[in-house]
């Protein structure tokens, strides 16, 4: 479940960040499209028609701030653009399917790596805090 605007605003206030109108617009846009893996360019495209005063640098700074605060997770899918999704620390891991043709990113919710992660942690005495798995190929439309 994604965060609400109120929860994000509270987190900003706790860390002594102001909720500027630009940050609110960017956060609301991300919340409206939170099921997608949006890049800064995607967010900018979504907000610029209604709010032309918001610049690309503001979008980058806001997304980086939200990632630093742990609200968003910044990911690289190999296409040269960082993408963002909500961070859910208590949520079961999910993995990504990336289409090499159209760039669509799909989520795969079953985490088949739990037992492997536990075995690696036990064998190496390494405390694993996260993992990511990406599959590259072609979506149904592009096959």
UniProtKB/TrEMBL annotation:
Its keywords, alphabetically, are: DNA-binding, Iron, Metal-binding, Repressor, Transcription, Transcription regulation, Zinc
Q: Which cofactor(s) does the record list?
A: Zn(2+); Mn(2+); Fe(2+)
User: What is the cofactor note?
Assistant: Binds 1 zinc ion per subunit. Binds 1 Mn(2+) or Fe(2+) ion per subunit.
Q: What are the protein's GO molecular function terms?
A: DNA-binding transcription factor activity; transcription cis-regulatory region binding; zinc ion binding
Q: SUPFAM superfamilies under this entry?
A: Winged helix' DNA-binding domain
Top-level division of the source organism's lineage: Bacteria
What the entry lists under Gene3D superfamilies is as follows: 3.30.1490.190, Winged helix-like DNA-binding domain superfamily/Winged helix DNA-binding domain (1.10.10.10)
Residues annotated as binding Fe cation are 93, 131
InterPro entries for the chain: FUR, Fur_C, WH-like_DNA-bd_sf, WH_DNA-bd_sf
State where Zn(2+) binds.
Answer: 99, 102, 139, 142
Q: Report any Pfam family annotated for this entry.
A: FUR
- A GO BP term, please? regulation of secondary metabolite biosynthetic process
Q: Which PANTHER family match?
A: FERRIC UPTAKE REGULATION PROTEIN, ZINC UPTAKE REGULATION PROTEIN
Report the family membership. Answer: Belongs to the Fur family.
**Can you say what this protein is called?**
Fur family transcriptional regulator, ferric uptake regulator
């Amino acid at each position: 479940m994604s965060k609400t605007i109120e929860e994000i605003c509270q987190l900003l206030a706790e860390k002594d960040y102001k909720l500027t109108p630009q940050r609110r617009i960017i956060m609301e846009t991300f919340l409206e499209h939170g099921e997608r893996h949006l890049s800064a360019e995607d967010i900018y495209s979504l907000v610029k028609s209604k709010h032309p005063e918001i610049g690309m640098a503001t979008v980058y700074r806001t997304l980086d701030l939200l990632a630093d605060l742990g609200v968003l997770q910044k990911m690289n899918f190999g296409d040269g653009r960082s993408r963002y999704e909500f961070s859910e620390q208590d949520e079961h891991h999910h993995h990504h399917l990336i289409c090499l043709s159209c760039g669509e990113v799909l989520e795969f919710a079953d985490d088949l790596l739990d037992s492997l992660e536990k075995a690696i942690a036990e064998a190496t005495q390494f405390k694993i805090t996260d993992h990511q798995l990406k599959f590259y190929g072609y979506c149904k439309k592009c096959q």
